[in-house]
Amino acid sequence: MANANSGDLRALNQILPARLNDRRLALLPKIVDEWRQIDLPRHRSITSSRSAAASFKRLELIKTNSKRLSRALHAARQADDEFWISRELTSRDGMLSESHLNDCYTMLDELARAAGQAAENFRTKRGRPRNDLAALVLMDIVAIYEWITGQPATRRVGRETGQDEGPFWRFASRLWALAFDKGTEGLSSAMKTWAAAVKKKEKGTRSPLMANFDLRHPEWQIFRK
């Protein structure tokens, strides 16, 4: 993996649009460095065939058990057994409203749905995880670009050259080179796949990277203007 250095980051700053948030620009080197040291190795780990298969099984188990528990609770409600559950919860917590139990039903249904969709990211196709390393890296780059510029990341292709170009491409090229020791090799393919998925409004095209940074470093105030 390539190492970030002051030259890399200066070059990154030079290709960014003018009039960006000074506070976020000052944070950018920290963001890039920690992404390279923590998030990229994690991506490499979870996209290995063995790890992906294990993740798929765990998420499928959450989906299945959430659905089972949801069905059991709905059956208890229809049989008026919900009263006994409410009584026990009330004796422990002092107060329980019907809305609290309704929230439990909603949460289980949402958990089953989300776990099922997450599992699809690790479903193998021709022996490879669907959510491969290139896709995860590019989605992280999208998240960083949109955070630092305040603009949506869009793929642009030159009419005459048929090649990727534009501000997002230039930005992505720099970070891609830090993630992989092969320049921009593979970037155009990853960007084409990502852009097509976004156009179709497919699930799983967004990275939680910046939200994760906010959780790891609340002192950075990631989303402050």
Short structural summary:
With 225 residues, the chain is mainly alpha-helical. The protein has two domains: 6-47 and 131-220, no CATH class; 50-125.
Protein topology:
Elements: H1 6-14, H2 22-46, H3 49-78, H4 82-93, H5 98-120, E1 124-125, E2 128-129, H6 133-149, E3 156-157, E4 164-165, H7 167-179, H8 187-199, H9 209-216
Antiparallel strand pairs: 1-2, 3-4
Helix pairs in contact: 2-6, 3-5, 6-7, 6-8
Number of helical stretches of at least 4 residues:
9
Average pLDDT score:
83
- Say how many strands there are: 4
Overall structural domain count: 2
Structural class: mainly alpha
Order of secondary-structure elements: HHHHHEEHEEHHH
Taking all Cα atoms into account, the compactness measure Rg is 22 Å
Proportion of residues in extended strands: under 5%
For the largest beta-sheet, the strand count, sense and barrel status come to: 2 strands, antiparallel
Instruction: Indicate the overall shape.
Output: elongated
Give the helix level as a range of percent.
55-70%
Report how far apart the termini are.
32 Å
